[in-house]
Amino acid sequence: MIREIITYPTPPSVQYATDVRTFNEELFSLIEDMKDTIEANSLDGLAAFQIGSYYNVVVIKKEDGTFLELINPRLISNSGRVTTVEKTAYFPGLSANVTRYEKISVIYQDKEAKQHSLRAEGDLSILLQRKIDYTFGSSFFNKLNKQEKKLFEKKLDFGSDIAISEACPTKFNRDYIVKAVNIAMIVMLVLLMASLFVSKETSEQLWSYQKYLFFATIVLNIIYFFYAQYEGKKFTSCTSCQIGNIIGTALISLIKIFAIMLISYLIM
Q1: Backbone angles phi, psi at 121, to 5 degrees
Q2: DSSP state letter for 238
Q3: Separation between Cα atoms, residue 61 and residue 35, nearest integer Å
Q4: Three-class SS string for 99-166?
Q5: How far apart are CA 77 and CA 79, in angstroms?
Q6: How many CB atoms lie within 10 A of CB 131?
Q7: pTM score, whole prediction
Q8: Which H or E run includes 186?
Q9: Cβ atoms of residues 17 and 54 within 8 Å
Q10: How many helices (H) and strands (E) does the chain have?
Q11: Are 252 and 177 spatial neighbours (Cβ–Cβ below 8 Å)?
């Protein structure tokens, strides 16, 4: 029977897995359910913990399509360290850089309660470590370093790995256009102030410069408005807040420009 996999933010139903003491039909049925769930969701493996069971059981799908059943698995030795990109069904669609042991040794029991040992490295080692984590009520989140954990928390907020790469940056290219407009307005204010202390002929000449700057700033605002929208489409995760910011920035800039121009007209 295919079982529902527990996913974030729903917490698993138990705090830690209980070692299997009775090897009966209930246990065997659970293992078959885990296999069905693995097949149905195209997974590499499952811990019983991930489907809400309190049993300490892990099932791994091997490359040949058969299953490795580990009852009461325990990691007894390890060597080396390796950092890999991991994904898990508990955090669907998300991944993280996790540092784990490169090689491990595990002891476990089969359905006849016989003891076995297993040495693993590479992908199998990583997979076993991740599934054994679940038998302790844990996930790869608890293995992340401070920086990676902070990044993964952002991924959780966005709900996908893609969203984090599309998050709004702190600076945009359009900011340079805004800077150019602000510089032009400062020059317009300087010309306005200068006109108070020069002759009428010079003031008229300054007025002509003022008109050029006025039209230049209008053009820059138009360029800003359309380019900002184009640039904003690259960051879909914050499109709505950007639109409001773009409109507000352009509108405030135009109000300032027209106010400067009106005062200049009356004085110059």
Answers
A1: -145, 170
A2: G
A3: 8
A4: EEEEEEEEEEECCCCCEEEEEEEHHHHHHHHHHHHHCCCCCHHHHCCHHHHHHHHHHHHHCCHHHHHC
A5: 7
A6: 23
A7: 0.59
A8: helix 174-194
A9: yes
A10: 7, 5
A11: no
Residue 132 near residue 126 (C-beta atoms within 8 A): no
268 residues of the chain, pLDDT tens digit each: 999 998 888 776 556 678 999 999 999 999 999 999 999 999 999 999 899 888 999 999 999 999 999 999 999 999 999 999 998 899 998 999 999 999 999 999 999 999 999 999 999 999 999 999 988 878 899 889 988 898 898 888 777 776 555 555 556 788 899 999 999 999 999 999 988 888 888 888 889 999 999 999 999 999 999 988 887 766 555 555 567 788 888 899 999 999 999 998 888 7
Would you call 175 helix, strand, or coil by DSSP?
helix
Please name the residues in contact with 128: beta carbons below 8 A apart, sequence gap of 6 or more. 58, 60, 70, 73, 75, 104, 106, 118, 120
- Residues 17 and 58: beta-carbon distance below 8 Å: no
Indicate if the alpha-carbon torsion angle 51, 56, 57, 58 is positive or negative.
positive
Domain range 25-161, CATH class: alpha beta
CB of 56 closer than 8 Å to CB of 18: yes
Instruction: Extract the tokens encoding 238.
Output: 């914050």
Residue 200: both structure tokens together = 């009428």
Residue 212 · residue 191 · CB < 8 Å: no
User: Which residue, among 31, 10, 19, 9, has the nearest Cα to 136 in the 3D structure?
Assistant: 19
94 contacts 160 by C-beta, under 8 angstroms: yes
How many Å apart are CA 53 and CA 247, to the nearest integer?
54
